[in-house]
Automatic annotation (TrEMBL):
Membrane-spanning ranges: 6-27, 34-58, 64-83, 104-125, 131-150, 162-182
The keyword Cytoplasm is assigned to this record: no
Organism: Psychroflexus salinarum
UniProt keyword annotations, A-Z: Cell membrane, Membrane, Transmembrane, Transmembrane helix
Origin superkingdom: Bacteria
Protein name according to UniProt: Manganese efflux pump MntP family protein
InterPro entries linked to this entry: Mntp/YtaF
Amino acid sequence: MDTIELILLAIVIASNNLSFSFGLGALNTKTYHLRIVFIFTIVEFTIPLVGLFIGQLVSSFIETYSDIAGGLILVAFGVYTIISAFRTKKERQESLEFITSIKGLFLIALGLSLDNLLVGFSLGLGGIHPLKLAIFIAFFSGLFSFIGLKTGKYVKDIFGKYVQIFAGAVLIALAFINFLGLPF
């Protein structure tokens, strides 16, 4: 996977933070914006490294099937992302109550970063440079969290659903690009 694919993947992964930050921004959480961006960025940097490490360990055992396994994980996560876009407003509202504490923000960031663990794991199967991936993901996650927080009050609830659906579709497309060996 080259740099352009890594940047696209980081943008897709960061879109979870964007859609969630729209909701946080809509709740008038201005005093917490710096804390939210900082915690989301740190967690988004760390989790893919853990996934990559696990993926690299496992790849030595299943080297023959690593491209297929990594692609299948990306497809599975893409489908999960699309399905999760259809959660109810009440479920989304309940999760937003955690923003007032550092512990709550870490729990939210870890929940949003489960995809990073899976993506890091799948890419670790293919030998991706860990710091390069983590830096791209952290950068776009921090940027998108900031943008989402600052513009959240102006964005309608339905828009977040479309962002997640688009993100899932791009993950599935990246998996097929890897399967076909296209030079992106």
